[in-house]
Fold:
Amino acid sequence: VQLVESGGGSVQTGGSLRLSCSGSGITLSTYSMGWFRQAPGKERELVSSIHSNGSAIYGNSMKDRFTISQDNGKRTVYLQMNSLKTDDAAVYYCRADCGGVLYWGQGTQVTVS
Structure:
């Protein structure tokens, strides 16, 4: 299993980014996929996750600004981030959860200034 994130970068406050997580060696429909983030000096936290049945959950303060989606045919999970704040700056990681077996991507940096 390999997860590769992309789409990070630098954006001004109030801007938008769309992160992508492409998976190989997995079938997304059988996994729960999630986005997590970790800022310097802070613990890794849940941003959003989407169950194989399509239901999604979001971390605090993110539900109204972020949207998670997945394209099973492309084996890709997306995170649309709008109205970005400086507090959103972090390394964003993709995670696949198959019945408790976890796989992580290498992360993509998001900078907000």
Notes: The chain has a mean pLDDT of 93. The first strand starts at residue 2 and ends at 6.
